[in-house]
Specification:
Layout: H1 4-8, E1 29-33, H2 36-39, E2 47-50, E3 54-57, E4 59-65, E5 70-77, E6 80-86, E7 90-95, E8 98-104, E9 110-115, E10 121-125, E11 130-134, E12 140-145, H3 146-153, H4 169-173, H5 177-181, E13 195-202, E14 205-211, E15 215-220, E16 226-231, E17 236-243, E18 246-252, E19 256-262, E20 265-271, E21 276-283, E22 286-292, H6 326-331, E23 335-340, E24 346-351, E25 357-363, E26 366-371, E27 376-380, E28 386-391, E29 396-403, E30 406-413, E31 417-424, E32 427-431, E33 435-451, E34 454-461, E35 474-475, E36 486-496, E37 500-510, E38 516-525, E39 530-538, E40 546-553, E41 560-561, E42 571-574, E43 582-591, H7 593-600, E44 603-607, E45 611-613, E46 619-625, E47 628-634, E48 640-647, E49 653-654, E50 656-657, E51 666-672, E52 683-690, E53 695-701
Antiparallel strand pairs: 1-37, 2-3, 3-37, 4-31, 5-6, 6-7, 7-8, 9-10, 10-11, 11-12, 13-14, 14-15, 15-16, 17-18, 18-19, 19-20, 21-22, 22-23, 23-24, 25-26, 26-27, 27-28, 29-30, 30-31, 32-36, 33-36, 33-37, 34-35, 34-36, 38-39, 39-42, 40-41, 40-43, 43-44, 43-45, 46-47, 47-51, 48-49, 48-52, 50-51, ...
């Protein structure tokens, strides 16, 4: 048999040179921590994060747990720290680092506190529109229920403001479904306040910011009588700040700041592209606001004038209500700090990298913000630079108390705890988030760049959440990770009090995976007389693949190559002129050698199902015996598939195999002639077809 390769090379679609290769698995990857955005993805507990100076050890925090779900409001009264909590309304006092329960209140949340000046507090409650007085001895007395008073005393107030089911942003954030549904018996006013959000005491008057309806009530502490003091024009008054003889109110839906100079003397002094003004703070002649929700990351300059009134300011975008999915839900997770200067100019200072903001306080030319998500406290300035001061294990930092030199106390939720800032930590750890590769990876060098002593450890595993099935923490050896190959990795860096981490590089390389052939097909192109050979291959690493295609006649041992270099396509057309008739099989090998090189390359091979090369016609013999035609059909390599008989040009009839089935390359057959064919002279045409589609014919004449 002549070498078929020389004959086929001219007609195969062969790639004699591969295109330029893009390296994949052979190149190591790198995880890089180079700025504050990178480091924020990890765990910063016990560390501060500066936008340019990197990570350093934070002041020491002393933690005291409180028997509640979260701390919503707080009040400092001398040495006592009052705490209002939820989801069960409780009042605690913290003294000398220890908390004690003072009172349990009939509400899901204590939402606001104000000092009575005599060692007790006034407490606003969610869902009841009620303000209670709690004495220093823990005795609870109802001061006023604004729900009933508003319903009775404000029957003419039909301004049509919506009572939205989801308007209570703060209650929704805390899962206070009960607060939304709780109405006092006999309340006929849909705008009557159910929630007390803020309290400010001025002399013998207690002012309460409420919602829905967005009113500020004035409560006479002598008589307990209340009246509507101001209408904010919003759904809720979230926060109140005494500003000399005036009150400043931060509102929700829309997010505005209103100034109240006296009864019914209200004007809006700032409006924001958000949902709520959560917290207010003043330093000198500048007013600061924490704004959550909506497009709080957008500057006011992005707002356009209305099209029908050139020169007029466009209306502020109203926060969506009731929509908890898609972009609106994501927007509600944003928070930003804004400031208003004495001349009325409003501008954004910085966007919180931790999402929504729960409370702000002023530190010199910077503003400190506690994050309602992420458990962190940050401080930012007019340049947009943001430093992370603390990272606690709780999910929420809902309040922060600031002294002359900085933060003094942190108040948390999920679960409730009080952190007191005291002294300096001697060391702390930065731990990366769980880092994932697409397959089993080999870990390389870990480079911690900075100042002082930086000790690095790693651990690895095959579950997304690190646990007992992971390898233990192991220190580096010669600068390289000692953790075993795996899919997930964590690194942690120990910093001492004089250390600073500015950059972290972690190198890894995915272990090369073997490419596979998933399918091989062959088909006969009868029109061209060729055989189409095609295959499919997969590589998990996305490597450039090369193929080696061979063939042999079934039953022989020698494979014959069809090309002399790597073949880079996934199909061939064979013109088997020099291939003797018979059954053949293809051997296809796939390799990622073009990408990985001989040291790490992997290959696998697969043999096709047999395919037929049959160019020879079958043979046929037959004779007439009485009224039957008896015959034999034979082919050298393939099965006889059918025998047909035609008489005098009539339509062909199927002959029957003598053994009942055409299943071999040697078949006997017979057919009974009709009576008309037994008299006179007739021409009988016999035609046999083999599995390769080749046919042969024989004519018989009747006597």
């Amino acid at each position: 048999m002549r070498p078929v390769f020389l004959r086929l090379r001219a007609i195969l679609i062969v790639a004699l040179a591969l295109p330029p290769l893009t390296a994949q698995a052979s190149q190591p990857g790198q995880w890089l921590y180079a700025d504050d955005t990178d480091f924020r993805r990890g765990n910063l507990e016990g560390l501060t994060l500066h936008p340019t100076l990197g990570l350093g050890v934070a002041p020491k925090l002393s933690r005291s747990e409180v028997d509640a779900e979260f701390i919503h409001c707080w009040l400092r009264d001398g040495q006592k720290l009052w705490l209002g909590t939820g989801l069960q309304g409780k009042l605690f006092v913290v003294e000398a680092g220890k908390s004690r329960l003072v009172a349990k209140l009939d509400a899901p949340l204590v939402s606001a506190l104000a000092s009575d000046g005599e060692g007790g507090v006034y407490a606003g409650l969610i869902g009841k529109g009620e303000v209670v007085h709690v004495g220093a001895d823990g005795k609870v007395t109802s001061l006023v229920k604004l729900v009933r008073e508003a319903a009775a005393g404000d029957a003419s107030d039909k301004d049509g403001r919506k009572d939205e089911a989801t308007a209570d942003k703060k209650a929704a954030d805390k899962g206070l479904e009960k607060a939304e549904a709780d109405r006092a018996p006999g309340n006929d006013d849909p705008n009557a306040p159910r929630h007390i959000w803020a309290l400010v005491k001025a002399g013998s008057t207690l002012y309460a910011g409420t919602g829905p309806g967005g009113r500020v009530f004035a409560i006479d502490l002598g008589t307990g009588k209340s009246r509507i003091y101001a209408e904010s024009g919003a759904d809720h008054v979230i926060t109140l700040l005494q500003d000399g003889e005036a009150l400043l109110a931060g509102t929700s839906d829309p997010a505005t700041i209103v100034r109240i100079d006296g009864e019914k003397q209200v004007r809006t002094i700032a409006a924001f592209p958000g949902v709520e003004v959560r917290s207010l703070a003043r330093a000198g002649k500048t007013l600061y606001a924490a704004v959550n929700g909506g497009q709080t990351a957008a500057a006011l300059a992005s707002m356009k004038p209305t099209s029908d009134r050139p020169g007029q300011h466009g209306s502020m975008p109203k926060g969506p209500t009731g929509n908890k999915s898609g972009k609106d839900a994501q927007a509600k997770g944003k928070g930003a700090v804004w400031k208003r200067t004495e001349d009325g100019v409003v501008q954004r200072m910085f966007v919180s990298p931790e999402g929504m903001i729960s409370e702000i306080a002023v530190l010199g030319n910077s503003v400190l913000a506690s994050a309602a998500r992420g458990g962190r406290v940050v401080v930012g300035d007019d340049f947009g630079d943001i430093q992370t001061l603390f990272d606690v294990k709780e999910e929420e930092v809902l309040g922060v108390e600031v002294g002359a030199k900085g933060p003094v106390t942190l108040l948390t939720g999920k679960s409730a705890a009080v952190y007191t800032v005291a002294g300096a930590e001697s060391s702390a750890y930065f731990t990366t988030e769980t880092l994932m590769e697409t397959g089993t990876a080999v870990w390389g060098r870990v480079e911690a760049i900075g100042e002082g002593t930086l000790e690095v450890e790693t651990r690895s595993g095959f579950s997304e959440v690190a646990g007992d099935t992971w390898s233990p923490w192991q220190t580096l050896k010669n600068g390289a990770s000692q953790s075993p190959p795996a899919t997930f990795l964590q690194a942690r860096v120990k910093l001492s009090s004089n250390s600073r981490l500015t950059e972290l590089r972690i190198y890894r390389q995915v272990a090369n995976r073997t490419p596979i052939l998933t399918k091989i097909d062959s088909s006969l192109n009868k029109a061209k007389g060729t055989i189409n050979l095609s295959w499919q291959a997969e590589d998990a690493d996305g490597d450039v693949l090369g193929f080696v295609v061979k063939y042999r006649m079934r039953g022989t041992k020698q494979w014959i190559s069809l090309h002399d270099r790597f073949y880079d396509k996934k199909s061939m057309e064979l013109v088997p002129t020099d291939m003797p008739d018979g059954w053949y099989e293809a051997h296809i090998e796939v390799t990622d050698l073009p990408t990985n090189g001989p040291r790490t390359a992997r290959a696998t091979a697969r043999i096709s199902k047999p395919f037929l090369v049959d160019r020879g016609r079958p043979e046929i013999t037959a004779e007439l015996k009485g009224h039957f035609v008896l015959g034999l059909a034979h082919d050298a390599v393939s099965r006889i598939v059918k025998v047909e008989v035609g008489i005098d040009g009539d339509p062909m009839l199927q002959a029957a195999a003598r053994d009942g089935i055409f299943d071999s390359n040697h078949e006997g057959f017979e057919i009974e002639l009709p009576p008309a064919a037994l008299t006179g002279a007739h021409t009988i045409l016999l035609q046999v077809t083999d599995e390769g589609g080749n046919t042969a014919a024989l004519r018989l004449l009747t006597p």
